[in-house]
């Protein structure tokens, strides 16, 4: 398999794809991102690395950050985390509040916003936001082997100014006794983790700890690797998770900045970015691109 040719071919196909989706605009700072950008990167388990397209342009990782905070929370709390958040797909949009009322403030999974807020609240307990954000950045930088990864303050501020829906989720969780810190502190920390900027090169490198096998950054246990991959497959694309599993057949986590981290267990960490989103808030061309990649390589967890 000639990976350079494969990735260049995918970039060329995406440049002429008919439906690029729509850029997220509920965070005003993201609304101004040029939708005609596409980048893809591949970090193979054997150490080889390939990238094509806009692979050196940084974008807002948004909900892809939930993978890193989940890894930190599992390391710190272990199975205790599951008293506060479930492990079932929600079948509803990422920012939905509906199930929280029926399910007594226990979010369905750690990747919908309500669940991710609980995860961030759990790692924030007993610490200052600054310390926890430092810890999240240290984790991401160690995973990517890159000290240049940072938070885009303008994006964090933009979401803080417009994040009423997440504040509502946080207050609802607090009303059910499933919040330790003030909604302001936890949401502030969450908005900053979502505002981490990375290129697809950096994100593909950072995902290697979820590939498994020797030679990868040994940041979490093998059990956690398997469990996070399972949650990415079942919940990583919200109410588009079934469609992503059907089309791509690999665990993935999307963000409204248009990035997706995809793991081919034992083989590769893949990062793709295109800012236009589909109706579920997942990158339209990013999904199409990894669908092509999975088909061409034959990578699938389903055989
Ligand atoms: N920061 C965004 C939000 O909370 C993340 C959502 C996403 O990427 N799906 O709305």
From TrEMBL:
Gene3D superfamilies: DD-peptidase/beta-lactamase superfamily. InterPro entries: Beta-lactam/transpept-like (IPR012338), Glutaminase (IPR015868). PANTHER family: GLUTAMINASE. GO terms for molecular function: glutaminase activity. HAMAP family: Glutaminase. It comes from the Bacteria. Pfam families: Glutaminase (PF04960). Keywords: Acetylation, Hydrolase. Substrate binds at residues 63, 113, 159, 166, 190, 238, 256. NCBIfam families: Gln_ase (TIGR03814), PRK00971.1-2 (NF002133). This is Glutaminase.
């Amino acid at each position: 398999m000639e990976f350079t040719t494969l990735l260049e071919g995918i970039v060329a196909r995406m440049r002429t794809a008919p439906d690029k989706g729509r850029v997220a605009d509920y965070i005003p700072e993201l609304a101004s991102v040029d939708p005609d950008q596409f980048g893809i990167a591949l970090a193979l388990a054997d150490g080889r690395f390939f990238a094509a397209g806009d692979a050196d342009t940084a974008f807002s990782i948004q909900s892809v950050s939930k993978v890193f905070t989940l890894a930190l929370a599992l390391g710190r709390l272990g199975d205790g985390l599951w008293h506060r958040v479930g492990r079932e797909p929600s079948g509803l949009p990422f920012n939905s509040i509906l199930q929280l009322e029926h399910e007594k403030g226990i979010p369905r999974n750690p990747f919908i916003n309500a669940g991710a807020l609980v995860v961030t609240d759990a790692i924030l307990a007993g610490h200052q936001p600054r310390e926890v954000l430092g810890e999240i950045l240290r984790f991401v930088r160690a995973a990517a082997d890159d000290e240049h990864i940072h938070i885009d303050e303008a994006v964090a501020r933009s979401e803080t100014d417009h994040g009423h829906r997440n504040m509502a989720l946080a207050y609802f969780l607090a009303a059910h006794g499933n919040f330790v810190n003030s909604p302001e502190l936890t949401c502030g920390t969450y908005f900053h983790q979502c505002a981490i900027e990375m290129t697809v090169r950096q994100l593909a490198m950072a995902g290697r700890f979820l590939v498994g096998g020797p030679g990868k950054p040994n940041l979490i246990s093998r059990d956690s690797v398997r469990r996070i991959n399972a949650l990415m497959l079942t919940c990583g694309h919200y109410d588009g998770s079934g469609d992503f599993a059907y089309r791509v057949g690999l665990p993935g986590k999307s963000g409204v900045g248009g990035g997706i981290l995809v793991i081919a267990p034992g083989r590769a960490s893949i990062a793709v970015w295109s800012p236009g989103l589909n109706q579920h808030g997942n990158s339209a061309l990013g999904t199409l691109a990894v669908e092509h990649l999975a088909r061409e390589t034959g990578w699938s967890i389903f055989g």
